[in-house]
Amino acid sequence: MSGNLTLPIIKRAQTQQQHPAIIDAQGEYSHAQLLSASQKIAAGLLQGRPDLQEARVALMVPPGFEYAAALWGAWLAGGVALPLCISHPAPELEYVLQDSAAETVLVHPLFEEKLRPLAGKLNIRFLLTREASSAEECPLPAIAESRRAMILYTSGTTSRPKGVVTTHRNITSQITTLIDAWGWTAEDRILHVLPLHHTHGIINALLCPLWAGAACEMLPQFDAGTVWDRFIQGKITVFMAVPTVYIKLIEFWENATEEEQRKMSQACAGMRLMVSGSAALPVSIFEKWKAISGHALLERYGMTEIGMALSNPLHGERRPGCIGLPLPRVQIRLVDESGKEVNDEETPGEIQVKGENVFLEYWRRPEATREAFAEGWFRTGDVAVVESGYYRILGRSSVDIIKTGGYKVSALEIEEILRSHPCIKECAVVGVEDSEWGERVCAAVVLNGVNSLNLEELRRWAKEKLAAYKIPSRLLVVDELPRNVMGKVTKPEVKGLFRD
Length: 500
What we know:
Blueprint: H1 8-14, E1 20-24, E2 27-30, H2 31-46, E3 56-60, H3 65-76, E4 80-83, H4 90-100, E5 104-107, H5 112-122, E6 125-128, H6 129-133, E7 148-154, E8 162-167, H7 168-182, E9 189-192, H8 199-212, E10 215-218, H9 224-233, E11 238-241, H10 243-254, H11 258-267, E12 273-276, H12 283-293, E13 298-303, E14 307-311, E15 325-326, E16 331-335, E17 341-342, E18 349-354, E19 361-362, H13 366-371, E20 373-374, E21 377-387, E22 390-396, E23 401-404, E24 407-410, H14 411-418, E25 424-434, E26 438-447, H15 455-465, E27 475-478, H16 483-486, H17 492-497
Parallel strand pairs: 1-10, 3-4, 3-5, 5-6, 9-10, 9-11, 11-12, 12-13, 26-27
Antiparallel strand pairs: 1-2, 7-8, 8-19, 13-14, 14-15, 16-17, 16-18, 18-21, 20-21, 21-22, 23-24, 25-26
Helix pairs in contact: 2-3, 4-5, 7-8, 9-10, 9-11, 10-12
């Protein structure tokens, strides 16, 4: 074990061995138990080898103690962890395993039937977690922080998913930045409901509490009633989720009795921090959640490639619709289309990021890696504007910025306005190719079912509301996208609306 003292997250765990680390359906586990289980899994992965030398270890393990032990075990053995999405179909999993050239697939018995045939087809070593855990502990390799630690696959709008490679140093930087910014302490207890193949679930909600000596209580999946019950039972101090989760929690609260609502709202009073991320948080949801819970959700901005980069403050004003300020030790700049840095407020530009938090490379894609950087700055592809010191996202330059009649229009801003209509439950806005205007603004809407809404009435209302955007005469609002439009739409939220 001595060689791994160089890994900061392991050094931290050794100083807080009696602290609770993971709580799941099987029980409560300390940092000492997590370290022991991780060492056994590492031995099972090594199987007599001195060092995996950055071999990719694909993980498919449900949320809980065994997931954390598998992740750390891969690192302790000198491997590169490759967390897989437990809900992905076989073709997507096969692509990731092939593209990463995974050497081993470490699988919980729950997923044996799903993964064993794929591993056999691709001639990849298949190892069950219970088999790896039964190995005898052995000497473990020394791991430098500069070594690759993890690959997470992230999709672009026009290409197959790319593997984002982070080093141990990158991960340490991402964790410690949030420890400082969000005030993590050993007294915290987070309720974890996020997927464990994304940065949000792995770094923010799992590794941060483990670093701080806090407890991470992990649910197998999100269920609004279960989450409210845990809030009511107490002890939870931190909660992190995506906007959709908060929407589901709000709907559950609204359908409860007055007495149940009172208990649920009171339960939130003892919590110190609630965070929203991974997608833009509608202002209406920010306000509803604040009224229900008393918490102003802390919205932040990050990506798989950079971890978290900006955040509303832990102490201070949290502005709805804004992603806040640059985090400690993270450099941020805005750059216009000509490559010139933007220094004026209210002038939009692409967010570019520099710091130890920024990823190493796209796996086996040197050209894509080069294109992702400009003068050492990572190009996020997200357009933002600074307003009174706070950054506000306008959207993805490739999807959310609509160029119509010479104007650049933010789809996110239009969505926010449309959501204010009393009949609209949800909406998504895209730009659709148009010979006259370049792109025409198109909105897909889902009605709340309470009130009826005439399409022409909605068009008139929207044109009046959007007059400030100087496009009142060419807004197209439809209640379902025609077939000839659907084929041109790339924004995933639009297609998602029609599954409801």
